[in-house]
Amino acid sequence: MNPVAGAELPARGRELTVAQPYLIQQQWDAYTEEQHAVWAELVRRRMPQLREHAAQEYLDGFHQIGLREDTIPNLSEVNRRLSPRTGWNATPVSGFLPPDAFFEMLAARQFPTTTYIRGRESMEYTPEPDIFHDVFGHVPMHAHPVFADFLQHYGRVCARLMHDKEKLEKMGRLFWFTVEFGVIRQHGKVRLYGSGLISSHGEGTHVIEGKPEIRDFNLDLVLEQKFLVSEEQKVLYAVESFDQIYEAAQEAERRLA
Ligand SMILES: [Fe+2]
């Protein structure tokens, strides 16, 4: 049951201010055959594992937004399918955003999306965000109404906490253990939905092989759970449904904002 989905109207048409200087156009026609081939190889490498181990909501989202195995996504085509579902858009940006711009975009249901694609030397890992991590890893979940509401609400709460580094760090942990490295229990198995697990073969395999400790999702523990970006994760938090992360964002707001 989901008592909260749809409770918030999408902030359509809202003007971005802080994020404005980072917005770019995707030059889709400028991608080379080699770049499309890199995308295809990355997708083909991940899909066999994901068909078995990704959350059903991720796999549904992948098809609903029309992602393809053979070509880099054209973001305006993705948005034509995504936006009517949940009000979200994958919005092209020039690279890493400062936190205030990032949260402003989430609060406006616009996901900052890089258009660059990694080279063959970085098939497993790229420190810079790229379109494979951003679109293949993140955007399919934005087609899910509850996840969509959660992510917008998360952005709104963080935008109000910009003055408080300590609270923002706690919120960063909530993001890390849901949006980036989230897992969910479905049909008695741990399934992947976080973009860091979806887009990285090494990180996904690490979880499937049972290496990290999987704890039941608990907001108190998550807000205190330190993590290292540069190492494989030792602890992850499994939800039972996506309502749980929406409710966690509401609870975090009551406590921190
Ligand atoms: Fe990410």
Could you describe the 3D structure shown?
The chain is of the alpha/beta class and 257 residues long. It has a single domain (20-256), classed as Aromatic amino acid hydroxylase (Phenylalanine Hydroxylase). The protein has 11 helices and 6 strands. The chain has helices spanning 33-53, 56-64, 75-86, 99-107, 131-138, 145-160, 165-180, 195-198, 201-208, 219-224, 243-256, and strands at residues 89-92, 110-113, 183-186, 189-192, 213-216, 235-239. A 4-stranded mixed beta sheet has the order 4-3-6-5. A two-stranded parallel ribbon has the order 1-2. α1 (33-53) runs parallel beside α9, α6 (145-160) packs parallel to α11 (243-256) and α7 packs antiparallel against α11. The chain is globular, with a radius of gyration of 17 Å. The model is unreliable at 1-13 (pLDDT under 50). Fe (ii) ion binds at residues 133, 138, 180, 195. Fe (ii) ion binds next to α5.
What percent strand?
5-15%
Report Rg.
17 Å
Query: What is the correct CATH architecture?
Result: Orthogonal Bundle
- Look at the structure and give the mean pLDDT: 93
Looking at CATH, the homologous superfamily is Aromatic amino acid hydroxylase
Query: Per CATH, what is the topology?
Result: Phenylalanine Hydroxylase
- Percent helix range: 40-55%
The residue ranges in which pLDDT falls below 50 over 5 or more consecutive positions are: 1-13
C-alpha end-to-end distance: 27 Å
H and E order: HHHEHEHHHEEHHEHEH
Q: What about the largest sheet? A: 4 strands, mixed
Q: What molecules are bound to this protein?
A: fe (ii) ion
Task: Count the domains.
Answer: 1
What would you call the shape?
A: globular
Q: Can you tell me the CATH class?
A: Mainly Alpha
Question: Which structural class is indicated by helix and strand composition?
Answer: alpha/beta
Q: How many DSSP E strands?
A: 6
